[in-house]
Design a protein that fits this description.
With 138 residues, the chain is α+β, with helices and mostly antiparallel strands. It has seven helices and four strands. The structure holds guanosine-5'-diphosphate.
Length: 138
Amino acid sequence: MGNITFTMIKPEAVAAGNIGAILKMIEGNGFRIVALKKVQLTKNMAGTFYEVHKERPFYGELVDYMSSGPIVAAILEKENAVVDFRALIGATDPAEAEDGTIRKLFAESKSKNAVHGSDSDENAQIEADFHFSAGERF
Ligand code: GDP
């Protein structure tokens, strides 16, 4: 048992056929998959999920992109899950991400950056609850 974090494999990584490779890295780095699903977000859902960014200039673009195709959402469990997962995914901009990180390997750009990872324990809970009911967690 450990803490949880929440992730999404973003539309361009799903379209590129990278779901399996990314999940393999996630499990290979000690994260247990508690919940998992493929789903296409509506604009409304993406807007709500990213509401914290609504004052940022790229908010509209981000909402359009995240609702442009299916994503894979997951709850992950590990000791120190939030911090360790942020380390595994790397910097927001793949040009700045360390070698071996998910974003370095799979991201196309700073906006199309392959995966989401929660930035705090509090947000991990909020984001997990946004996507998954209790009966979908194992
Ligand atoms: P994260 O925590 O590393 O995902 O980064 P942020 O919280 O700063 O940004 C949230 C998401 O917005 C990122 O993962 C990108 O998909 C997107 N994003 C960040 N910066 C930009 C930008 O300058 N332009 C666009 N279009 N999207 C961005």
